[in-house]
Amino acid sequence: MKGTGRGRSAGTGALCVLAASVLWGTTGTAATFAPDVGPLAIGAVAMGLGGLLQALIAAPQIRRHTSRLRDRRGTVLLGAVSVAVYPLAFYTSMHLAGVAVGTVVSIGTAPLASSLIERVVDGRRLTRRWMLAAALGLLGTALLCVAEAAHATDGTGRTSMAGTLLGIGLGLVAAATYALYSWAAHRLITRQIPSRAAMGAVFGLGGLLLVPVLLATGAPLLASWSNASVGAYMALVPMLAGYVLFGWGLAHVPASTATTLSLLEPAVAAVLAVLVVGELLPAAGWMGIALVIACLAVLTTPTPTRHPRGQVRNNSVDHDSGPPGKAVGAVPATSGEHRTRHS
């Protein structure tokens, strides 16, 4: 049945986004193995080199769809600029406000920014299910943030208020740009541009914009094999592999659903900090992780929807209400095309 097929496709897309979020959650722990490398260099090598590699792999598809990409050059440019700004804001936010606060602000508020963009630009409606999932996810990330921030505060309780506020502000910039490039990539994909070509163009151009930053700040990456290994890992695994998976996910679920699913990232980061780095996580932090998992369960658990004739259909990711026969959470088809192409 066509509706069931779309529901299954949305479930696959959700799994791709979750897998990408797991990979992204390793970046904070990986960065601890290169303490001499600044946040701008980490961000530039991760997104810059990763984006260029993604464009290189997708070069045949980009050439094949150059005319369509040129027709959508405004969307491509918006996504590319957002790709370039995001890592600089994200890693600097973590540097100034702490890993927990920076990650939670950047990732935790991205679903709200993404939903606002889709509501204003696309007129997309939000269901009660999505709002419940977002509320659980935001509450969970807030608890995680408070728990880790309280644990990280030194004995004097005196931290740089100006630095923390600037870090939070940069986290909001990171959230907005994350939402923007997710929306731009999703929009290109729904305009009959395959995900590989769309992601390669957006991230390749964004990577080019990050090259000057990498040249200006990246010298410490070459100072030791450990620093170089961290840089290579960040570019190849979380960024290249992670964003390939994210692109596949965006082909099947709306951008706001994808950014909500990525709330798994700070939970993964916290668990790795405990297991690998040796940090301690208070009970409130574990409660926050449980709420994030509940958020993901609400979003990804199939729910039966009845057809007018009484038939039951399963949908894997709920996002907005649609007319009868349209799979909830599926990418809107254009020009009668109901399949997603990846090549």
Describe this structure in words.
The C terminus is likely disordered. The chain starts with a helix and ends in a 28-residue tail after the last strand. Helix content is 73%, strand content 2%. The chain has a two-stranded antiparallel sheet with strand order 1-2. It contains 15 helices and two strands. With 343 residues, it is mostly helical. Helix 3 crosses helix 12 and helix 6 packs antiparallel against helix 10.
Short description:
The chain has 343 residues and is an all-alpha fold. Helices cover 73% and strands 2% of the residues.
Topology:
Blueprint: H1 2-24, H2 27-31, H3 39-57, H4 59-64, H5 66-71, H6 73-97, H7 99-108, H8 110-122, H9 128-152, H10 161-190, H11 195-217, H12 225-250, H13 255-261, H14 264-277, H15 283-300, E1 303-306, E2 312-315
Antiparallel strand pairs: 1-2
Helix pairs in contact: 1-12, 1-14, 3-6, 3-11, 3-12, 6-7, 6-10, 6-11, 7-9, 7-10, 8-10, 8-13, 9-15, 10-11, 10-13, 11-12
- The portion of residues assigned to helices is over 70%
Strand order of the largest sheet: 1-2
Total helical segments: 15
* Structural class assignment: mainly alpha
Q: Tell me, what's the shape?
A: globular
State Rg.
20 Å
β-sheet strand percentage: under 5%
Task: Please give the alpha-carbon distance between the first and last residues.
Answer: 25 Å
**SSE succession:** HHHHHHHHHHHHHHHEE
Major sheet attributes: 2 strands, antiparallel
Q: Report low-confidence residues grouped into runs of 5 or more.
A: 154-158, 310-343
What is the overall pLDDT average?
78
Count the strands?
A: 2
